[in-house]
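Hey, I was hoping to borrow your eyes for a little while. I'm sending you its amino acid sequence along with the backbone structure tokens. Take your time with it, there's no hurry, and the full record follows here.
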Amino acid sequence: MIVIITHIIVALLSIACTTLGYARPTHKNLQASYVLAGLTFATGFYMVLSEPVSMLRACLSGVAYLTIVMAGIALTRRKLALLSSKQEA
């Protein structure tokens, strides 16, 4: 039960951090997004291994989550690169 709660909290923090990272792009926000996405993946992987009953649903949800977060991270990286190039010019 504690793993599920941890997983949900980390996933929500990851989405919030990725959104914040896009709104205010910094290297720290980007690193935090990577760490939280990795922790979400790790806890999800652990849950699938420990309780493989609903593995298909978990995998589909995980792929959807990772797609959204990785798209947010990619947009943040792009925005951060654009801001860095503007500051150098």
